Q: What sequence folds into this?
């Protein structure tokens, strides 16, 4: 007979030891699903602490399938779930930043709440997701970019997915993707859809140890830097982003968020390809703003305006589009 361990009461913040044991039990399947459901909902209602977030991430990191990344590799990733259904900004940023010479270990998955996640859009562009996952370490070393398909790297999450869908509300696992990158990157630009929660999330990231990272959030609850409203940034390690960021800081125009509303994977893929081919407009400016921040975190740009210019050059001289073509052909 299987003996189930008990989860601690989430009525009050958990100690580091209690949180570590709870998430180990959840991911190892030693707890009944009913207990997990109650625990996750209660934690969400109360509000997760930085310790709980960090220990959940440690538990996921201990159970993932890792790859080795080059020195200086970065991830550009959002928590998702912001409800704005924009085009794939962080995916485009990853290609542009990699075209600038910074290795990008892009962690992502299929859409959960939007119509097209990173995986969906890359697949629509012609990238074979299974082969890209299998060759992620090779493409990261040879091309400077990889897509770390979450389904391939986090087997412990297989039993949690159906439970999360049944709960049908945000839980701590909605915050985990950026904190459990299989390449163990030490430089990250992470978007979170809750500006008020950014400092707590940054505290968790600091506990996990990074060289340079920034947690960003648009004022309207966007999990990336906004081209409509001001955004906030919380720096960790040696990152030096301004605490408050506007498009003007990068020499870019403001655009309503509706101007970058996305669609299905085919729609988003076409928009991304046209962006890399030089199309101007709101999508380009959103990508340049966020790429500028990523290049500052990577240490290759000192200011947002310098980073935006560097990113624009990588698009305009064709490096971004050529990289996408080489990546698709490689796998």
A:
């Amino acid at each position: 007979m299987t003996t189930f361990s008990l989860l601690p009461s989430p009525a009050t913040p958990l100690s580091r030891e209690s949180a570590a044991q709870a998430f180990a039990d959840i991911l190892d399947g030693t707890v009944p699903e009913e207990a997990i459901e109650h625990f996750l909902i209660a934690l969400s209602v109360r509000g997760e602490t930085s310790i709980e977030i960090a220990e959940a991430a440690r538990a996921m990191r201990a159970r993932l399938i890792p790859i080795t990344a080059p020195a200086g590799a970065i991830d550009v990733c959002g928590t998702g779930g912001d409800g704005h259904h924009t085009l794939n900004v962080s995916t485009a940023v990853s290609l542009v930043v990699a075209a600038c010479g910074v290795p990008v270990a892009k962690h992502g998955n299929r859409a959960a709440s939007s119509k097209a996640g990173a995986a969906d859009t890359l697949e629509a562009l012609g990238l074979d997701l299974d082969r890209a996952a299998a060759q992620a370490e090779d493409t990261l070393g040879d091309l400077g970019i990889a897509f770390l398909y979450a389904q391939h790297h986090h087997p412990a999450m297989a039993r949690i997915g159906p439970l999360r869908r049944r709960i049908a509300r945000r839980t701590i696992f909605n915050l985990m993707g950026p904190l459990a990158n299989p390449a163990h990157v030490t430089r990250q630009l992470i978007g979170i859809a809750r500006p008020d929660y950014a400092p707590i999330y940054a505290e968790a990231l600091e506990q996990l140890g990074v060289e340079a990272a920034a947690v960003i959030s648009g004022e309207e609850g966007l999990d990336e830097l906004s081209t409509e409203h001001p955004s906030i940034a919380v720096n960790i390690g040696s990152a030096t982003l301004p605490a408050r960021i506007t498009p003007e800081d990068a020499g870019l125009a403001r655009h309503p968020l509706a101007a970058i509303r996305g669609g299905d994977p085919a729609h988003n893929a076409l928009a991304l390809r046209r962006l890399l081919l030089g199309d101007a407009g709101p999508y380009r400016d959103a990508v340049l703003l966020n790429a500028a921040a990523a290049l500052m975190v990577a240490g290759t740009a000192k200011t947002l305006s310098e980073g935006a210019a560097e990113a624009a050059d990588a698009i305009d001289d064709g490096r971004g589009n050529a990289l996408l073509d080489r990546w698709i052909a490689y796998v």
